[in-house]
Amino acid sequence: MPTYNLIILTSILAAIFPSISVQTARAEEPPWKGTIPAVYKEASPWAPLLEHLLAHNLNFGALATASRMLTFLPDLNSKTAAYKAAIKVIDNGYPFSTRKLFAPGDIDPSQNDYFFYNSYNLYKAILNKDSGSSRWADNYFSKIDQGSFGKFLFYQSIEAYKKKNLLAAGGFLKKILEKETGDPSHLQFVKKVVRNLARVYFEEGSYEKSLELYSHFLLKLNPISSLDWLEAAWCFYHLKQYPEALGALYNLESAASYSQDGSLDLEKYTIRALIYRQLCASDQAESLIQSFENDFGAVVRGIKQGEALSHYPVLTLISTPESEEYREIDATLKELQLESLRLTELSSEDRKLVNYIYASEIWARKRQLRIYRDQTIELAAKSLISLSEQLKFLKYDVAREKDNPEAVFRSPSSVESKLNHEPPQDNETTYLLHWVQLGDYWWDERNTYRGILENRCLH
Amino acid sequence: MSFRAHAEMYHSSLLDGTPIEAVESYLIPKQHQIEVGISLYPFDPYSTGIALDFGYLQNITQSLSWQIIDADLFSSFQSGLTSQLAQNYSVNPTTIEHLSYIISTNLNYYFFYGKFIFFKKAIRYIRGSLLFGGGLLGTSLKNQGAGNFGTAFEVLINDTFSFKFTLRDSLAIPSFTNYVTFALETGVNF
After folding, report:
1. For labelling, which of A124, A231, A355, B75 has a CA lying 20 to 30 Å from the CA of A283?
2. Which of A283, A443, A450 faces B23 most closely, judged by CB atoms?
3. Which residues contact residue A334 at a Cβ distance below 8 angstroms, ignoring those fewer than 6 apart?
4. Which residues contact A421 (CB under 8 A, 6 or more apart)?
5. Nearest chain A residue (CA) to B8
6. Nearest CA in chain B to A242
7. Euclidean distance between CA atoms B178 and B168, whole angstroms
8. Under 8 Å between Cβ of B23 and B169
9. Res A14: pLDDT
10. Min CA distance, B28 vs chain A (Å)?
11. What is the dihedral of CA B56, B59, B64, B65, to 10 degrees?
12. Tens-place pLDDT, residues A285-297
């Protein structure tokens, strides 16, 4: 009986104080000092630091600094400097949403600074619109040069895209590109515009046009976003250029592709599976299943057996549409950590404040990651299980496709006309070399890869 | 997790068992090439020959080019042996034969194409050829016919400029003397 009593008592205590063990663990960490050091309450060191961070391309740190300035410093000059810096970081290609930053904005920017004036009003307008304050939103929208301000046209294209008005969405994007002067400082913005236009074309079913934008612009930039390879692979797939689609996907296996943000996109398995089904490539389908098994087999089995998801850190790397916020925090943390290694480039006057900003920001991001981690790995586990189940049926799908009368009795000529994937031929001015790949990923070859795979559906 | 990227380097890289190839347009120099460079004839014990080298070449196909004319005009620098012969045995240096010129026409057959990374920065293309041809070869004492055999390696900077290293043996006929020369040339293509 005393044993039962002890168990019951322990259970009651555990129910009442569930966080005892957690708090004990946390007590070992150094205490977090939430108060800003008094010396940094002065506005004077912040604005110069912000400039120096931007000058050294420490963009994530600059954005964190701007955010702190908006929180800590009440004077308008500091706020204006912070917003200007934030907008510059966005224009430099900051990939995540910065809306929260504009929520407390109460400045009245000068019209003389065209880009800042229009950008600030646009962000405030969008923020107000999203929060349902349409009157405020209209007020801010009315201040914008709606006819020719590129970011506003971009916003309009997104709104049109959301409403499935692809023609209008494409029209706005083309208008932006017509106005672009080729200024290198606009490259990041132009990149966004072109990528969105490629997506609009894709949605329209104009895969050739979409592919042209990837092939002639997005995939010629350095560094290439691995997402662009994936999207180009989809275009190739829809154009039935399967060898090229495999080539584009092959880029995703390179170390350079992995190191970009460290995340894993399971979509690449899906496209490969679809290609093998289209070509009745049963050996490749089995290989794909095996490759998936090698990469994720243990994780999938663990999930199915009900093991704690936290045992599988790879789940945090899997990118799902719902894990955007986690990805953002994770990427920001990594970038801040990388940038923190370069702080010695700054002067000794900046060093103390910047060290404080980076240390506290990294600390905060780590804690944010913990909050989002469980939800993220749960979503990743679901995606993984779903893909694992789909791949199980792949073998049967491929086998069925082999006996699909439509595929089997298709005349070779009709297939050739549809499959525009014959290797390009030599001629008098072009000498083509076929370099068999050895896994060393030369940068000049990355857009020329092809998988050597024949259509095996035809008997 | 097993990510293949570098682990299987130097083995054929497969994506789900599918071999992957890069289909690349090789840089082909323009049709006409003017060559300017320096040749060296180092194997004569009595003198070292250094020549100004001029040539004109036409790229005929991807694997064949015709060096319509190649002229090397040599200056000879006497070696210690010539001085010793003059001093100790009263040999008149002008009676010692040295190479004066080689004028020839040659065919190049390109047997090798490749590329390399220069100082981890630039990717450059290279092609190698076997050359054979004939022409005239003159020494300080006589003029003869010559048969040429050799090999050349050409680094293409772009389709207009290239650098070429040539190793050539000119076999003088009828004396059957071998004249092995090295040449370093710049090619300007147009």
Report:
1. A231
2. A450
3. A261, A262
4. A240, A241, A242, A243, A244, A450
5. A439
6. B18
7. 10
8. no
9. 47
10. 7
11. 0
12. 889 998 888 889 9
- Which among A287, A435, A438 is the nearest to B16, CB-wise? A287
Q: Does B5 touch chain A (CB under 8 A)?
A: yes
What H or E segment, with its residue span, contains residue B111?
strand B99-118
Lowest-pLDDT range of A165-169, A186-190, A361-365: A186-190
Length of chain A (residues): 459
| pLDDT tens figures, A231-244 | 999 999 999 999 99
Q: Tell me what percent of chain A is helix, strand and coil, each rounded to the nearest 5.
A: 70, 5, 25
Measured in angstroms, the CA of A287 and the nearest CA of chain B are apart by 5
Nearest-CA distance B121 → chain A (Å): 11
Residues in a beta bridge with B20: A451
pLDDT in tens, A113-171: 898 999 999 999 999 998 899 999 999 999 999 988 999 999 999 999 999 999 999 99
Here the tokens at position A436 are 């068999």
Nearest Cα of chain A lies from the Cα of B44 at a distance, in angstroms, of 42
Both tokens of B46, joined, read 């009595």
Reported as type and span, the H/E element at residue A62 is helix A59-72
Give A426's contacts in chain B (Cβ within 8 Å).
Answer: 62
Which of A395, A438, A443 would best serve as a mutation to test chain B binding (most B beta carbons within 10 A)?
A438
- Asked if B120 has any chain A CB less than 8 Å from its own CB, the reply is no
Q: Do B18 and A451 touch (CB under 8 A)?
A: yes
Which residues are bridge partners to B124 per DSSP?
B116
pTM score over 0.95: no
Question: How far is A331 from A351, CA to CA, in rounded Å?
Answer: 24
Answer whether A177's CB lies under 8 Å from A187's CB: no
Q: Which of B2, B21, B25 sits opposite A436 (nearest CB)?
A: B21
Written as six digits, the tokens of B142 are: 């006589």
Is-contact A126 A105, C-beta < 8 A?
Answer: no
Residue B48, strand partner residues: B77
Q: Kindly state the tokens that stand for A346.
A: 């700054």
| Distance spanning both ends of chain B, measured CA to CA | 52
- Tell me: pLDDT of A379 over 80: yes
Residues of A in contact with B22 (CB under 8 A): 434-435, 437, 442, 445, 448-450
- Could you report how far apart the first and last alpha carbons of chain A are, in Å? 77
Beta carbons of B15 and A439 less than 8 Å apart = no
Using DSSP, state whether A411 is helix, strand or coil.
coil
Task: Provide the pLDDT for residue A29.
Answer: 55
CA distance A272 to A278: 10
What tens digit of pLDDT does each residue of A274-322 get?
999 888 888 888 899 988 888 899 999 999 998 888 888 888 888 888 8
Instruction: For residue B8, give the nearest of A285, A437, A288, A293 by alpha carbon.
Output: A437
Instruction: List the single best residue of B2, B3, B13, B16 to mutate versus A (max A Cβ within 10 A).
Output: B16
For every one of its 190 residues, what pLDDT tens digit does chain B have, with 9 covering 90 and above? Answer: 333 333 344 455 788 888 898 888 777 778 899 999 999 988 877 778 898 999 999 988 878 899 999 999 988 877 776 777 667 776 666 667 788 899 999 999 999 888 888 887 788 888 999 999 999 998 878 889 999 999 999 998 887 889 999 999 999 888 888 889 999 999 888 8
CA torsion angle for A449, A451, A455, A457 (degrees, to 10)? -130
Residue B145: CB atoms within 10 Å: 15
B94 touches chain A (CB under 8 A): no
User: Is residue B113 less than 8 Å (CB to CB) from chain A?
Assistant: yes
